[in-house]
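Colleagues,

For the teaching module next term, I've prepared a clean inverse folding example: a structure given as tokens, and then the sequence designed for it. I'd like students to try predicting residues themselves before seeing the answer, so please don't circulate the second half yet.
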């Protein structure tokens, strides 16, 4: 059961070199839509050898590795669940964290039975913030119910969705909340060891967490017999290796095991057969950041926030085109228009053309859908998604055909290649739009071929990357048909 993290056998799979510092410009979605704000910098970006798809600095796009500015952080929900310590300046040391209720939830949790904690999380209504919105308590129940040992808990800090910088700021500014939440989750499901997988493009988050884990060990929060109980637990920090697909939970587990990071076929799900074939709970960083608050304040207080089937708060990150880019904790159940106009302040320049919410693997939200409530099912109804919570606005000057090309270039570059529609289909669509945009003779796109590839992506992809690319294409073909008409035969 030795971890093979750092193994070089799959080095060729990863886009970013394992050694040395990351350098260069970001070409993620938020930087793509902001290219007019600094065309020179964007030209440098597309001509640089290495493709970096999101540095999580979308509030200052087009951005670079050197940029150290922090985003604006605000809490707009009735109660601060996730950003409370961060809005007050962050809590990087144990003293700062414990001064603001840190590790109190752990003490409370260890005095309760694991089953009670699982029930508390279930009745809070918390759903995963990593993209799929799966009920967190159900996952905990499933792992608790597994008899096989050892069990693992894994924090997914890969945050690959371009436009999102929520997990980055949580890891950098309030790292002990991740440790405390993993401890509580591990105790509740009966896990022995935890992993935090941190995106390679987030070197500061990695450094902060490295120190945090070592401080937590020294402080007696990690190790043997925590708080004098029979519960022992430790955490291993894993540096992501630079590929978007590593955020998909089963690819992430393969990556930790030192294997090629391809998504696994399911079932079995990780809760039953995860890391090294053992029962494993994989949870997103923001999801975890909700846990100590729920344990301290109770499921009812949490359920009181939000609406419909979307309980609690959600942190959203707004890109640089907004007048007020930044990180905002909001309650589910406010109209998208409120986020765009009241919180974001509208665009700095020009009129809004649409929004890409939660990453590029879902539908686009057109301005005439802005009355839609911000909630899991409500956004699904218009073909969009809460996803990770990044909100990227683009203006009316943004060419939709260039946007489609950009997203398929990203998709084909990041596809793991395991299944045919995604491996070949994504690069074919990228190529079709590249030729059309270059104005090559005979490059008008055959819509039937395009729609056939989109159907194949939707129906035959093995993971959310291929399916999401299909959803994005379906959405733009429907909502932006007029803009795309000149591309077709
Ligand atoms: C292509 C792809 C990329 C993903 N990237 C991430 C990611 O970077 N971070 C994350 O938390 N979840 C990501 N997910 C979702 C995870 O597979 C998984 O659902 C999540 O980590 C579970 O945690 P949650 O229930 O707390 O959301 C991704 C999914 C797909 C299909
Ligand atoms: S859909 Fe794409 S990324 Fe997902 S498994 Fe298939 S080839 Fe890999």
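(Answer key — instructors only)
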């Amino acid at each position: 059961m030795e971890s093979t993290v750092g193994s070089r056998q799959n080095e060729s799979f990863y886009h970013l070199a394992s050694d040395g510092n990351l350098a260069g410009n970001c070409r993620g979605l938020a930087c793509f839509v902001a290219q007019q704000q600094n065309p020179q910098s964007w030209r440098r970006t597309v001509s640089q050898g290495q493709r970096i798809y999101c540095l999580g600095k979308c509030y200052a796009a087009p951005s670079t590795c050197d940029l150290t500015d922090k985003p604006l952080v605000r809490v707009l929900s009735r109660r601060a669940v996730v950003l409370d310590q961060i809005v007050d300046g962050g809590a990087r040391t144990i003293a700062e964290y414990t001064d603001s209720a840190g590790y109190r939830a752990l003490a409370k949790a260890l005095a309760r039975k694991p089953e009670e904690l699982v029930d508390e999380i279930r009745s809070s209504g918390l759903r995963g913030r990593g993209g799929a919105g799966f009920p967190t308590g159900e996952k905990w129940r499933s792992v608790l119910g597994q008899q096989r040992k050892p069990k693992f808990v894994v924090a997914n800090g890969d945050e690959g969705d371009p436009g999102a910088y929520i997990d980055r700021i949580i890891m950098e500014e309030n790292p002990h909340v991740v440790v405390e939440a993993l401890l509580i989750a591990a105790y509740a499901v009966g896990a022995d060891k935890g992993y935090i997988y941190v995106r390679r493009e987030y070197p500061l988050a990695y450094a902060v967490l490295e120190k945090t884990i070592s401080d937590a060990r020294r402080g007696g929060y990690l190790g043997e017999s925590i708080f004098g109980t029979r519960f022992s637990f430790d955490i291993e920090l894993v540096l992501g290796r630079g590929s978007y697909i590593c955020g998909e939970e089963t690819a992430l587990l393969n990556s930790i095991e030192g294997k090629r990071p391809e998504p696994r076929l399911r079932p079995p799900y990780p809760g039953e057969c995860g890391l090294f074939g053992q029962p494993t709970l994989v949870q997103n960083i923001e999801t975890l950041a909700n846990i100590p608050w729920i344990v301290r304040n109770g499921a009812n207080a949490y359920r009181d926030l939000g609406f419909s089937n979307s309980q609690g708060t959600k942190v959203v990150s707004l890109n640089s085109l907004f007048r007020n880019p930044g990180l905002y904790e909001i309650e589910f159940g406010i109209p998208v228009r409120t986020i765009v106009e009241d919180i974001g302040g509208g665009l700095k320049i020009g009129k809004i053309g649409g929004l890409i919410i939660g990453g590029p693997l879902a539908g686009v939200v057109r301005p005439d859908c802005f009355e839609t409530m911000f909630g899991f099912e409500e956004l699904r109804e218009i073909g969009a998604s809460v996803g990770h919570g990044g909100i990227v606005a683009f203006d009316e000057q943004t060419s939709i055909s260039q946007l489609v090309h950009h997203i398929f270039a990203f998709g084909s570059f990041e596809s793991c290649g395991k299944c045919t529609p995604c491996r070949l289909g994504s690069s074919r669509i990228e190529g079709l739009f590249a030729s059309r945009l270059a104005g090559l003779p005979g490059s008008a796109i055959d819509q039937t071929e395009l729609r056939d590839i989109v159907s194949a992506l939707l129906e035959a992809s093995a993971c959310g990357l291929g399916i999401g690319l299909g959803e994005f294409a379906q959405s733009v073909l429907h909502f932006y048909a007029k803009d795309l008409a000149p591309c077709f035969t």
